[in-house]
Amino acid sequence: MTRTPAFLSSRLEALSHPAERSLRDALIIEALGDPSPAVRDVAVAWAARCLEPGELLPCMADDADAVLRNAALAALERQGPYAVEAVGRLTSDPDPDVAMFACQVLGGIGSVEATPALLVALARPEVNLRQAAAEAAGRLRARDAVPALISLMEREPWLQLAAVDALGAIGDERAVEPLLALVPGSFVAAPALDALRRIGSTAPLARLLPLLTAREHAALRVPLIRAIGGCLRDAAPSAELLALGRELEGEHGTDSAWRLLADRLSGEDDDPDATPAAPDDRARLRGGGISARGAGAIALAAGVASLHPLLIRRATDADWAAWIVPLARRFGVPAGAAATALLSHGDPEVRAGTLRVVPAAAIGASRLLALLADADEIVRVAALDAVGELADDATAPALGERVGSAVAAERAAAARALARLSDPAVAAELAAPLAEGAPEAATIAALSVLRHHRVAQLDDRVLALVRAPSPALRRAALRAAAVIPGSPAEVVLFRALADRDAAVQVEALELLVGHGGPRVRATLLAMLGVADSLRYHVIRALGRLGAVESAAPLETLFGTAPLHEQLEILTALERIGNARSREFLAECLTHSHVEIRRAAAQGLASLAGADDMALLHQLATSSDWVLRSEAARACGRLQLPAGRPLLLDLVRDLEPVVARTARAALAGSP
Amino acid sequence: MIEASGADWKLLTDLLQERFGLHYAEGREEILAARLRPRLEALHLDDLRAYYHFLRAHPAREEEFTELTRRITNNETYFFREPAHFDAITGHIVPAFGGELRHRPLKVLSAACSSGEEPYSLSIRLTDAGLELAGLRWEIDACDLNPLRLETARQATYEGLAFRATDDATRERCFRQVAPGRWELRERYRRQVKFFLANLAAPTLGVGWGAYDIILCRNMLIYFSAAAFDRLIARFAQLIRPGGFLFLGHAESLFDRSTAFAPVEFPHTMGYRRLETGG
Ligand SMILES: C[S@@+](CC[C@H](N)C(=O)[O-])C[C@H]1O[C@@H](n2cnc3c(N)ncnc32)[C@H](O)[C@@H]1O
To answer: What ipTM was reported for this prediction?
Structure first.
């Protein structure tokens, strides 16, 4: 029979008994060198948990057995901050290989406390060792290593690549000049450009811009586009940029820089290093790869008008818009006749994108109103949003008309825009959609305006609509009613708690929580006595209101409530957070149901303070990983010296989530 | 982003794994979060832990699990995907079963059939191979976890990418255009296929199902945890009669697992034969 991971782990588990410790440790070490990767994985977790770094270090020096060594390295890395000190001492080990492995482990752990140990290695003569130290310094983002890395880069051709990468990862401006010295002439010019991109300083622009159109450096164009894009992040308009723009417009041939920019802008995604791992991830990259964004930034900053349609059409995508719009506005492009031309471009996405990019005031009301009749929905919606930006009462009739549109997106945009106008304008336009017999969709859109912009003279109508036969209408009316001050509106919300539609009830409850106040709390408290499906929400609402007076009734209810309500009660008590609720939560730590114990621990961990170390210790040594994870979270939040030993133990937890939480907590240590 | 700690994510993804076998790699939380956000909003819950509690304890949790299956499954499929399997069935397996099929129908299970393209492709290929003319009958059972996909499957009307591997002639022959770009599969290919809802990770899976000659379970196990994978293969071993075949997607294999199946090579692909003993 082969040793399956389950078999091995059960053996290891059996051996984790203290009396058999030496046997257990020997078995772990043996399993670290097991030929099966699955077995080694289990052994690595146990080694990280049970062995001291000092016991693992000898495996690291074992030349003969690379499998064992790598497993030991993995275990040390998994120990994280716990191992930093012991491993850090090894960067001065006389054996350069041991020192090199130590650097690798420190890089994998990534705590910046290891920087001094890496500086020791960077100062040693062995090339491989310095290379490992440089890589590790990059992974740590060790700013203190920047001077050493710069001198390494300047003196050691062999180590340039490692140093350049590390400097890019660290992102410190001190590296800009030395990196620029490697562009365009050295064999690490492309990596140096990538490092400059990551640093993102504007300083290199003057030197980089002319290279983009230089034929002799055509091979560097893609890294240049990416680097310039990075450097433009905070750049201001300049004569150099405009000069580049003119030069780019001068040459559109197949081998031109202009063509490359155009390709990058039209490509779906271009960066091999940004290839999505799974189809689902593609959505995350919609914001564009690094070179597409670089090309876009250049097109805008250098005012390359012929590329603007390609770029601006992508502003209809929210991810792209988030970076295009601020950049375009900073550089004031497109403007004037160019903007006008884009607004009548044949591609609706270009028209819509232009409406997002160009400030509405620059386009003007009459032009925008004309675009409300565009053939394409996305253009009409963008135009409605732009009209909203104007906040001009003269546009009210046009907006009012769209509140009744058959297209949901148009109704919503018109409602958003209307909400920004004055009271009389809103009142005039909403009279029709709020009237008896108006189509439901229009009435709901009108109510959504009033939710953001109350108009006193329409209050009565809103309060009447709360009794409409359609649940969707009632919900929309309730939301609008919730912004009306005074008791008639509150009465309406209270009454809706007994609505025949569950969704309306919950909506009313949510709105009342927003109101708060003693009356709301008293009513909700009274509702605890009614065992219906709303009670679950009522409990939650009391918690959100932090209603201290509900602590005792909630505790009483706990005894007879079903599990889902019990869990909500614990969450509510956590939010209420007084001494009494804490006591109750602490009692629940011994409850028979695991989810109750966990919810109680979560509450206690959120409430724990400096005096609660004993409690955190109790959680940290629980057999339930959820409780241990709560302990790590609390220690991270509190950042007390007394929590450090707990975290150094939890960081080696067998359950990776606990170890990660503890590691993050330690990284936040003062 | 939904508010959640690492522990919250683990609790939820462990629950999904326990319930559906589906494994969520760490680091893909953002994607899962995007799919769950509308559910949290609909239920008025403000963090993942509350949602987890809902799924563990709320009286309406079963409805919510059903709601979830529509969101968290990858239902990508199309007609004549990995066609070498269909070639193996029509060209090698059916002829090899030979005389036996004169007395009873060929029984196939399309496990995780999504919107039906897979079982319908097989039905088309079996019809094209002239089985009916030779007096042979077949029945295809097809199941999936996602009720929306099954609804599409029962309607048998498809468009666009479903036909990415279908030539025009086949589409014209086997389908009827019902609207521009929308095609409905002709009745003769539909009648042998039966769809039903099933969770392939359920502990009671397969109770009361018949014995199959062939099971297709393609492009689902990649989403399964190792333990759920092993459990399902063991269950398939009980559902396939000795000498029957199992086909997995090209990224899935029984390599390095001890099972009741032996690999068999077919032109351009491989399948697994249920051994006469063991399992
Ligand atoms: C990518 S599709 C594969 C469809 C088809 N077999 C193919 O290869 O084209 C995966 C399907 O597995 C289904 N699925 C996922 N988990 C399942 C489970 N536990 N039980 C049944 N079906 C499941 C999904 O609903 C989805 O339709």
So the answer is: 0.83
